[in-house]
Batch of 4 targets.
Target 1
Amino acid sequence: MKVDVIPDVCQGHARCQDRCPEVFSTDAVEGKCVILMADVPPELEQKARLAVKNCPEGALIIVSD
């Protein structure tokens, strides 16, 4: 599974980081999502999917399964 972020849509709520800090982080300057691991390993897929679903702006996307 691969994930990505649409930076212009992200508002910096950091729900993704709260749900899956292994894959998502927050930029210290702009406060927006940073993808730490674009290729999500199988053991983190469920957490990453939850993070994508919890983004209020829909800034996170699953690129491929």
Target 2
Amino acid sequence: MPFRPGLNHLYIPGPTNVPEQVRMAMNVAQQDQRGPEFGAFVLSILRDLKPLFATADATVMLFPGSGTGAWEAAIVNTLNPGDRVLMARHGQFSTLWAKMAADLGLDVEIVDVAWGAGAPVSEFARRLAADREGKIKAVFVTHNETATGVTSDVKGVREALDASFHDALLFVDGVSSIGSIPFRMDDWGVDLAVTGSQKGLMAPAGLGILAVSPKAMRAAATNTMRRSYFSFADYAVTAQTGYFPATPPTPLLHGLRAALDRLHTEGLANVHARHARLAAGVRAGVAAWGLEICAEHPSLASDTVTAIRTPEGVDARDVIRIGLERFNISFGTGLSQLAGKVFRIGHLGDLNEGMCLTALGLAELSLSAAGAKIAFGSGVAAAQEIYDVAAPAVALAAE
């Protein structure tokens, strides 16, 4: 790799920037994961994760691995081979989740919609209402589709389930939403909610985090799908004692503890408001360039990542390459059918206005070098108009 002075400007939608406080917290000696202090330490993390999910009732579990591992844990502990599940494919990660469900032996009923659309609530409602025999055992929703920058209506899917008096479990992928934008597990009747340590939680990748409703825990007591390492029975004990069934990544847990402290100090309402404000500035910048985002409608636009369509004749891969080679900035690439058509600016986690303005300024240079007709400063100025208005004053949480 060539030498590049200064910071690498990281604007992929995860892993996100790790704050210095979090990095320093991980610089600890190894400790006895069976020692008397370790259990209380882990229980404090599990306790402080609950507000991010907005749940009082769920059991929170930490799996050494990733959000993908937590996806698998959710499936194998609550469903049975051959169970029918209802899913939509509208981006790379909803597609991967559907593939995993099929690989694990589920009967996957797919609704394909455009990449840029959200979860098809009305179509889900139609199919659930028609399922009079209750063959559908679970509905899967990708809350924030990272590939397209689209946030879906989880509450609407719960309302569709309730309107049809359907008993299916509600699975939600919140990997790029939980800890950054509002998520209401108990209010929305979510049964299994998945996230990871590396996005809104501002820690390195390595922990899959899963919140499990009492209804889903009851399903786990009788389901027949095989599992071993990801068994809820073992991790439910961790939720009670703080001790893991296998060796945990102790330095990463210390980093997560520090990240939760930062979120608590800022206050979750402030965190959500900050992400909404920063995203609005980024979207204003894209509009000023005369470009479109991937989300089909402004109401679907994510507050954690924006997927930007490049103009005709401009390959988004060139924008990304030029950005890294010339300006030391990492943008997110277009995935699968969006390869070469979009580049992504991640705006979640440890982020402020100056960082978003940097992303827009360097994106202008990269787009121009790739052949796009961009007026320098146009996107930055549009975002500055948003950021010039002071953020609403909300009291910080107590230290």
Target 3
Amino acid sequence: MNKEEKYFHDVGASVDGALSGKLFGKLCFKINKKAFCCFFEDEMVFKLNGDFHKKALTLNGSQLFDPSKKGRPMKEWVQVPFEHHKHWKKFATAAAEYVGG
């Protein structure tokens, strides 16, 4: 396990009620059986809305999540590079609140 994956696990597991699972074959964390974050290409991906979504997209290298790489991004999901890992915890918490209702 590399440092990025370890940090992903630490952040995801720190969210109250989160359980690990899979999303598109990738590691993820879920709340109430709904994925709120996943790990892709050594980066963390979050299901966000509102100001958190906007903030995540302002970070250098962040982008809408397009796991197929066919120009069909998932509009609510933002992929955030490890260089911004200091933001991962707040995005994970916001994402869990968003999908957890």
Target 4
Amino acid sequence: MEARAKVSTVRITPRKVRLVIDVVRGMAVNDALATLANTNKSAAPVVAKLIKSAVANATKNHEMDGSKLFIKEIYANDGIRMKRFMPRAKGSASGLVKRTSHITCIVAEKQ
């Protein structure tokens, strides 16, 4: 039995999110949340909120024990890319790509 939570179109690049989620992958939920509380990255609060949501789904919808949960899978995929222009010298412009990410977390009980 496993529970899932997903957050879409987070305004952080997937590369930066992957730095954070690689740290907590496979950890127990309580350890992961403690680690994220002390992580100095902009994606850490978003990932912590996502893990809490997955735990709430597991305990409320699937009647799992919250103390036995661990992060079975967590990954970040590319979201939409917003294309913008930045003014440059002599009346020209250069392109800018603002990236977003979709983050998915799956928690399961330890046997």
